[in-house]
Amino acid sequence: MADPTGCCHPCATCLLCFYSCQWITAKKEKRKGLRTTKCDCSWFLFLFLVFLFTLVWLYFTVIILNDFHNFNEFIFKQRKLWLDWSLVLLIATAVLITYSATLLVLALCLQLCGQPLKLHWLHKTLLILTALVVAAAFTGLGIKWTEEWRSAGVSLQATGPFLHIGAVGGMTLLAWPLASYIYRTHSTGLKVFLLLVYCAVMITLYLAPLGITSPCIMEESQLPPKPALVGHRGAPMLAPENTLMALQKAVDCDVQVFETDIMVSADGVPFLMHDEKLIRTTNVEAVFPERAALNSTAFNWTDLQQLDAGSWFLERRPFPTVQSLSASDRQEVARQRIPSLQQALEAAKQSNISIMFDLRPENHSNYQSFVNATLAAILQSGIPLQQVLWLPDGFREQVRQQAPGLQQVYGRKRLQNEEEPLLRINLPYQDMSSEEIRQYRRDNISVNLYVVNQPWLFSVLWCSGVSSVTTNACQVLKEMERPIWLLPSSTYLIIWIVTDCVSFLAILWAFLLLKYWLFSLSVPPESETDVLLTKINSLMQE
């Protein structure tokens, strides 16, 4: 079959200009007799794979946004540079995916127009660089942030049904350029190979829902109660972390537990602080420049009270929500100081919320004295012991004996031969499957998972039946009245069948329509003389 041009010459010329980086008209291209070679096909395949590779990285980028604040903190500890690196990552990823997607669309349009796929060497170089950059990003993720691979597995429970629909839709659209290429090529073997590969991929996609599982595929009547909210260091998107203002903002978000971190000063006063050093969340470099690099436990309580624990929040803006603070909130932020555990317990008692904490650093030589000082502060505060959730593992038996009323929370799963049954556990959300959460719920074990910031993740854990989640975004999760999506299994079955049927009919229509279209373009129209002679001949026969 001839290679008819399926679109106007100006359109084909523009496509060739952007794809081949040469301003040459489609007519000249045709006169030169240029065709798509095997090398050109190989570069098109490489372009398609780079696009898919970059698309997968875009998906990972969106998923890891839930945990990206941890990455920002890690970079600050290493380089003393604070920046919202998630914005940099999103911009870079958007540039890469836009570039590869644009080239792919140009290539598919050229194929539909019957033009050669002569990719310019500059595009080839940039595609190779794109593949290397994305490969380096995946490698770094695997080395430095391995838990995010498990986060991707969790995310598929939320996105699986929609990824299936998107994949079916994308492959269905690919039927048009594929049909165009098959009808234009003269190699029977290549035609058969492409059709077999395409059919195998489509059959796999059509049957993919058999392997898709999501806790949110359920009847609404089966939906467990909404998980309780635990404020991670308070409400760190609305106030400086581990301050009394952060605790109050968490109370305003209806959190049931204030989660914090405890250090003990050199003179034995427990206080709220996450980092071992004071540089990130105080102005210690301005007040005590010669001692700024020391651990926070090296400072006495009098020194710690001189530090500003709020202004950094306005200067570095660790979350975009800082920009929306009111003038009164900004003034209150500037007045924040490092609170003692005694002050935090008093505020928790007045607000009637529980408090859960880690005691740091666990490897300190005086850790037992830290435990004793912390326990003494709790007992002296007068707070009901059932409002205190004790998380540190060190010297737990001693704590249990001295204060049996404390709620013991374990940072591990239960063991097979557990002497005393666990009542509360606190784990990263990547460490618990939906099946385990349901089993623990049936066994009356309270499961708290951290850190959950994105609504999609909260929805999955809600459907799974988790008891509570630790979050930075309590103001967001508070407003959720139901999971983002909830589908009865019968409804999902209908969506699955309709999607597959529409896709199959669209593919069939694409192949039939293109065959008719290309055939009509390849048959030369009859001249007016031929038409006139035919009419005269028919009249004479009558």
UniProtKB/TrEMBL annotation:
Record keyword Hydrolase present: yes
PROSITE patterns: GP_PDE (PS51704)
Encoding gene per record: Gdpd2
Protein topology in the membrane: Multi-pass membrane protein
Localization annotation: Membrane
Pfam family of the protein (one): GDPD
Protein name in UniProt: GDPD2 inositolphosphodiesterase
Organism: Indicator maculatus
Keywords assigned by UniProt, alphabetized: Glycoprotein, Hydrolase, Membrane, Transmembrane, Transmembrane helix
GO molecular function terms attached to this record: glycerophosphodiester phosphodiesterase activity
Domain of life: Eukaryota
Chief location: membrane
Membrane-spanning segments: 41-65, 85-113, 125-143, 163-183, 192-212, 492-514
Family that this chain belongs to: Belongs to the glycerophosphoryl diester phosphodiesterase family.
InterPro entries linked to this entry: GP_PDE_dom, PLC-like_Pdiesterase_TIM-brl
Residues of the GP-PDE domain: 227-481
GO CC annotation, single: plasma membrane
Ribosomal protein found in the keyword field: no
Any Gene Ontology biological process: lipid metabolic process
